Amino acid sequence: MVDKLKFVLAVLAVAAGIAGFYLLAPDASLLRAASVLGGLVVAVLLVWTTTQGRQLVSFARESIFEARKVVWPTRKETVQTTAMVFVFVLIMAIFLWLTDKTLEWVMYDLILGWKK
Question: Where located (predicted)?
Fold first, then answer.
């Protein structure tokens, strides 16, 4: 129940920041931006103290830890893989073009007799 109340307060903080943006004079653009930023900061702090917020922070830390374990490919491996993809796409394009032309020839010339 307390977490739900914190979420409601977080939404109200964001709404108050946005309302402050529109209610402040157009001349005070820095104050208007600070109003929105302040509302967002208060909302983030409120959500951070909830159970779901702590779980999100824990998940983010674990994700960063796992991302550090990733073995990224070298430039040579990336170029080779990209080249293989391009070759495969070219081969598939030629195959599909030949299939299309063969079916066109079979349908129009052999079956229907619409010789060009």
Answer: Membrane
Q: Please choose, from the candidates 6, 5, 15, 13, the residue with its C-alpha nearest in 3D space to the C-alpha of residue 42.
A: 13
Q: What is the pLDDT of residues 73-92, one digit of tens each?
A: 999 999 999 999 999 999 99
Whole-structure pTM value = 0.53
Residue 55 near residue 3 (C-beta atoms within 8 A):
no
Spatial distance between the Cα atoms of 39 and 18, rounded to a whole number of angstroms: 8
Domain boundaries, the chain: 1-69, 73-115
78 token code pair: 């990336």
Task: Give the CB-side neighbour count of residue 59, counting CA atoms within 13 A.
Answer: 7
